Amino acid sequence: MTNLQEAKLAREAEICYATVAMVTDYDCWREGHDAVTIEEIVAVLHQNAENASKVVKAAVAALPEARTCACATAAKYAVLTQRDMIS
Questions:
Q1: pLDDT 10s digits, 65-76
Q2: Catalytic residue set
Q3: Which of 19, 33, 40, 70 makes a 20 to 30 Å CA pair with 86?
Q4: What stretches of 25-84 adopt beta strand conformation (E)?
Q5: DSSP 8-state symbol, 26
Q6: CA dihedral 14, 68, 77, 60 (to 10 degrees)
Q7: CA-to-CA distance for 45 and 40, rounded, in angstroms?
C-alpha cells in the first residue's frame, strides 16, 4: 500500500494522520559525511524507533478532546443513502 492509498483510507475513515520520517543513513545522501557501517545504521534505526514511539505518545497526549479538524467530518456527504435504509 502506498502513502497516498493510506492517506485516502484514513481520510475516508475520518482518521487524522501524519507522517513521521527519520534519517538512518547520512552517508547515502550527504556529501562529505564519513561512510557508516551497518551496525551504526541499525543502532540509529533502533534509536529512531524509540524516538518515533515517544513522538506518537506525545502527539496523542496533545490531541484536543473535541475534534474541529476537517478530517473529523470528511465523510459527512459521502453516504447518500437515507440513514433509515442502512441496516
A1: 898 988 888 888
A2: 25, 27
A3: 70
A4: none
A5: G
A6: 0
A7: 9
d(CA 41, CA 47): 10
- HSE-up (13 A, CA, CB side) for residue 63: 16
User: For residue 8, which of 83, 78, 80 has the smallest C-alpha distance?
Assistant: 78
Identity of the amino acid at 63: L
Q: How many residues does the chain have?
A: 87
Q: Which three cell numbers stand for residue 12?
A: 475516508
Nine-digit cell at 35? 561512510
What is the Cα–Cα distance from 17 to 54, expressed in whole angstroms? 16
